[in-house]
User: What shape does this take?
Amino acid sequence: MERNEAAVGAGERLADGIDTPCVVIRSEAVDANIAAMAAEAARRGVQLRPHVKTHKLPELAHRQVAAGACGITAAKLSEAEAMADGGIGDIFVAYPVVGAVKARRAAELARRVRLLVGVDSLAGARQLSAAAEAAGLALEVRLEIESGLQRTGVPPEAALALAREIAAMPGLSLTGIFTYRGAMLGGAPTLDLRAAGHEEGRLMAGVAETLRRGGIAIRDVSVGSTPTAIYAAEIDGVTEIRPGTYVFQDRMQTAFGVCRPEDCAAEVWATVVSRPAPDRIVIDGGSKTFATDVQPDKPPLHLQGFGRVIGLPHAVFERMNEEHGVIRISPDDTCEPGDMLRIVPNHICSTVNLHGSVYVSGKSGLRRVPVAARGCIQ
Assistant: This one.
């Protein structure tokens, strides 16, 4: 390859004063991804409520709503608060809200926006009920169902008993159920996304019907991740999907076959700082720059390394320290210190969370945007 073909084009595309490592978002690709998912949801007659944990930027949440999303999903109350501060008016916190302090915060936020919150226990529901009563409002809640990931959520067989108790609590309005499972089928990771989505959708539609027969007026059945959302949406009874990663896509989604490599809208730009051996280069981004939660060689994808180096298809991003990224290359490659590389990380969501700001590209060049919901863990 010619020198710098794998690089960003070094000085041609990085304006003066912009340094690496950094996350660069291609605005045109983002808009295409947003439009594509909105069209898939509309085609299947379900609402789209994208998860903003991927981008953490109110600007992009507004683009998603403008393209047809009914609102957004957040992981934590602080993330929801950041989005409310950014002008988003319909937010679902898809996480059990537990604790008196958090319950009071939820009630306060519900005065500002339409807020839905997740619950999967009597303890959490009682705290939310007390806070809603004290605030003089009705707080809309959704019951989380455990659908195979063995994380949060009530088992399907226990849902009706818990739902009845929650529905009877003052200050709470139980309007829906939700789950998150990802690419799981029969309790194991899978590449059969259609079967996984259908299994998830059928399970949740069945739980909703059980609750309705038991006297609980369930309206919303919310499911889906980026790999499985459009397939879960094909099941009658599913009303809402909550994909997140689709807005940027990443190496993991490419490996699932969800997108093409060119659909990946967010990249880490990094500088080669050393070539200590003919087959090894070191970049200025390590575990403080790239997420490490999606490890190499794990089922079902068995990814090689921690990211795809654009222009160097055989390169393997083998390992990281905090400030060093070590990439195995061919001795014939011409990478040298000072060259800049574009890398699509395995998992973009937690990569973005490591950065205080990102650069958004457009027709007028690059502009720096603070990551408003970065570090929102409470």
